[in-house]
């Protein structure tokens, strides 16, 4: 099966999951639990959307491995073979508090390289799709490459708590930009970079399911996507990420390297 | 003319201005100038949309005064009589860099009290309207009152630069919330509070045209809207604003009063 054919199939799942998520917003009695703290939530919809994707993958690709935020995963100790990475709802706090500004994401990696990826901006009904060698699309429109530009010509997505808790370098970085914008969903922040609405996204440590889908798309679009030290991302562990056009990326990495 | 009749008329202007703004986004050669610095921009559309509103107001209400961001204003030394307050594009930096996340706003004040107000979320094609005594609407739907709740149960909109540059109180405030979200448009941040997507919006000093429209709507919806010291807003000068439900507002004001 070609990557394109896998993407066609997976797009149907993503659309169906989006329908379920939009319908769920009228559910007045959604079950919500705290995970690590009051801003780290999980709902019954996180679990049921993940189960939905897992069922589809098991049905069509019984030999592929699965790595999901809500705990559905095979024993994965390296990135060899085919691995699906699922974040059923990215931005669950927004899903609960805002009923918007969340997304649903899946990606397929082959031997450590992203080959198919989806980020569904559910409320705007925009499905972003990356297919290795074919580009990145918003619905039917192919995204254009981002012109290289400096961080002082653009906006940045970065967590306020990260800026206040971390070093002077992070504050200097923020002051070098035109301003901060923050949606509160890693997937949607990455979409902002992919569509050049912000010039960079800088994070503290994120898990594979938060970043794999944007990582695939950013790479396909020619953006730089590394750890804050400029190293290759390792999806088997947590990573603090910098994603940006190559020029802005280099500027940001250089700052962090001075620390 | 009743407030309702004025609102019906002004809604047509707001709709027409929204059409012009959406059309302008395909203009590849938009003229952009810096005002005070690289993140404070004005475009030819700011000026032409303001001129459009001014023309409509002068035609229908020749005796009303006008106060506009782009310099169209009568000699206003007090808030007596009828005063229109215009922000043709709120979030001009987003308009230029993101082609989204901006709004267009006008409000009418009578003897210092907001009586009619519009915030047009142009890209989402959502027009928010407040009419004194009649409530606040998103298109045809009336907004519901916000349940009183604590800042630690919600998100906050606050500028990252403000958090990094100001006192420990501001950082403590941020840490008391579930997280920060920031669109980069005062009008749209206020819409987030009015629709309970964030629980509070806290600003540094803003001008009348940035806040008057949200001030009218927040008051109509029963939210608290004051300076950071808890004092009444004075639209003849700049104000650092706190807008929130009464409980969260009191918590925030109490923090700033300790400074």
UniProtKB/TrEMBL annotation, chains A, B:
According to UniProt, the name of this protein is: Inositol monophosphatase family protein
- Keyword Metal-binding applies: yes
Q: Where does Mg(2+) 1 bind?
A: 69, 87, 89, 210
User: Which parts of the sequence bind Mg(2+) 2?
Assistant: 90
Q: Which SUPFAM superfamilies match?
A: Carbohydrate phosphatase
Q: Which UniProt keywords apply?
A: Hydrolase, Magnesium, Metal-binding
- What is the protein's species of origin? Jeotgalibaca arthritidis
Q: Name one Pfam family in it.
A: Inositol_P
Tell me the cofactors it needs: Mg(2+)
Chain segments annotated as transmembrane: none
Recorded hits in InterPro entries, A to Z, give: Inositol_monoP_metal-BS (IPR020583), Inositol_monophosphatase-like (IPR000760)
Q: Name one GO molecular function term.
A: metal ion binding
GO terms under biological process = inositol metabolic process; signal transduction
Residues of the signal peptide: none
